[in-house]
Write a structure and sequence with these properties.
Blueprint (H helix, E strand, L loop, with lengths): L11 H10 L2 E7 L8 E7 L1 E4 L10 E8 L3 H13 L4 E3 L4 E6 L4 E3 L7 H4 L6 E16 L5 H22 L19 H8 L2 E16 L6 H12 L4 H21 L1
Length: 257
């Protein structure tokens, strides 16, 4: 990821919050195989366990996820572990990458630049977005018959469902809201069958970077034009991006002082 200084986010707390608010990340692996593509990616929802917000800490946190055993990426992973004769909870030799993108992103029209466009015309389209990129080592829980894999998957699917039911769906059971769905609501035997069809993936966060590209590089006049342009779209995404442009612009102005 290109981290231009004016867009780069150095706060681990802010990056962790971005991940927690946008848990669907793209897992990318590069595994030599005669049967599957070398580079593969899959969208996976993750649970974040924060260990440290110290940028110098060797491990900042852990991401816990799972994927379908029939996924070609999972097959390539299992194949590589089988070749090396790894145990049920096995470290993947290759480094992995996970990319998270904020749900609030949008095309930026040159028409929004109310200061530069009328004076020089030297403007081009761009895209505003926020993203976090994680690198780390993965432990794979791939043996469906092992107690260790079963325990990991039980905790993983419980924690993930609770995260999504409460934080995303707002099913808290409080103040008249619906109660959250629980794994225990499904038959035990059914859950055990489902667990045999997935593998667990736990990634240690060894390196993390991210950016909030929200028109900070623009002049204050152009930023105001961008904010107005997004607000005038009349959409929730437009309003959210406008608010982020204002917030990030104000942060930039404070730093300059």
């Amino acid at each position: 990821m290109y981290l231009r200084a004016i867009h780069a986010e150095s706060s681990l707390k802010a990056l962790f919050e971005l991940i927690q608010s946008n848990p669907l990340g793209v897992l990318t692996t590069a595994i030599p195989s005669t049967s599957y593509h070398f580079i593969q990616s899959s969208h996976i929802p993750w649970v974040l366990d924060i260990i440290s917000d110290d940028p110098e800490a060797p491990v900042k946190g852990r991401l816990r996820g799972h994927m379908a055993r029939q996924n070609p990426q999972a097959k390539a992973i299992i194949e590589s572990l089988t070749v090396t004769g790894s145990p049920p909870a096995s470290p993947l030799q290759q480094e992995v990458q996970i990319l998270f993108t904020s749900q609030d992103h949008h095309y930026v029209s040159p028409k929004f630049y109310t200061e530069t466009k009328p004076s020089t015309g030297k403007v081009v389209p761009t895209w505003n977005y926020a993203a976090a990129q994680v690198y780390g080592k993965a432990t794979i829980y791939h043996d469906s018959s092992s107690a260790e894999s079963s325990e990991y998957l039980s905790k993983q699917i419980h924690d993930l469902s609770q995260l999504c039911e409460t934080s995303i769906m707002d099913y808290t059971g409080e103040r008249g809201k619906q109660a959250a769905w629980k794994v225990a609501d499904a038959p035990d035997r059914y859950i055990e069958i489902m667990k045999k069809n997935i593998i667990g993936i736990e990634v240690t966060i060894e390196d993390i970077g991210g950016k909030f590209k929200m028109s900070q590089e623009s002049s204050k006049g152009d930023r105001e034009g961008v904010i107005e342009g997004f607000n005038n779209l009349g959409s929730e995404v437009g309003r959210n991006v406008a608010a982020l442009v204002r917030k990030r612009g104000e942060m930039k102005d404070v730093v300059k002082k």
